[in-house]
Amino acid sequence: MKRNVFVSAAASVVLLVGGPVATAAAASADTARTAPAAAARADVTAEQAVAAALKDYPGVVESLDRDGNVWHVDVITKDGKGHAELQVDAATGKVTRGNVDTSENAAEHQDLLAAKVTAEQAAKAAVAAHPGTAWTVEWDSDDNGGKAAYWHVEVRGTDGKTWDGSVDATTGKVTTQSGTDGNSDTNSDTNSDSDSG
């Protein structure tokens, strides 16, 4: 009994003498206990944003782009006639529908719907080739100078640099795009149109 009284009295002296320091230490201990729960909740990844968007509006992702705390995801229905612009909250994964159109020209989306490599697979391939976080994935089938359609992927590296690349929509092969703001491995696309004549 005397031991418990002594320990309680010693703790009281520490709190009185330590005052704010002891209180701050106790608060830090409480924060440390709750921090793992907050740290466990990471931002929604590109893959998770795609999954959430497709759950809300089934189809094929045409583009995915992170803007601040929101993922913008465009989805085309599998028949090519529907198109939805969705926003996925990057903190919670909550999906909000923007514009939905059910009168699309299915022929315009034929290449996308036939692609063997999806937006999610293109993001994974790009990140495997250039470690970082997929930030943008866009279908590109227009004005390719006779080239096959591909996915344009932007990856933000852990070093803060941005890498722009292409992922072949049939093979999944990753190549660096020319004319980017960062250091480009090749510049082969600039002269490809000058041979006609």
In brief:
The chain is an alpha+beta fold and 197 residues long. The protein has helices at residues 2-18, 20-40, 46-56, 110-114, 119-129; strands spanning 60-67, 70-76, 83-89, 95-101, 133-140, 150-156, 162-168, 174-176. A hairpin with a 5-residue loop joins β6 and β7 (162-168).
Describe the protein.
There is one protein chain. Residues 1-41 and 179-197 have low confidence and may be disordered. By secondary structure, the protein is of the alpha+beta class. An eight-stranded antiparallel sheet has the order 4-3-2-1-5-6-7-8, covered by helices on one side. It has helices spanning 2-18, 20-40, 46-56, 110-114, 119-129; strands spanning 60-67, 70-76, 83-89, 95-101, 133-140, 150-156, 162-168, 174-176.
Strand percentage lies at: 25-35%
Q: Which residue ranges are poorly predicted, with pLDDT under 50 across at least 5 consecutive positions?
A: 1-41, 179-197
Average pLDDT for all residues: 76
Rg over CA atoms, rounded to whole Å, is: 26 Å
- Give the helix level as a range of percent: 25-40%
Q: Largest sheet at a glance? A: 8 strands, antiparallel
Q: What is the straight-line distance between the termini?
A: 102 Å
What order do the SSEs take from the amino end to the carboxyl end, as H and E?
HHHEEEEHHEEEE
Write out the strand line-up for the largest beta sheet, numbering strands in chain order. 4-3-2-1-5-6-7-8
Structural class, judged by helices and strands?
A: alpha+beta
Instruction: Give the beta-strand count.
Output: 8
| Helical run tally | 5
Please state the overall shape, judged from the principal axes of the Cα atoms. Answer: flat
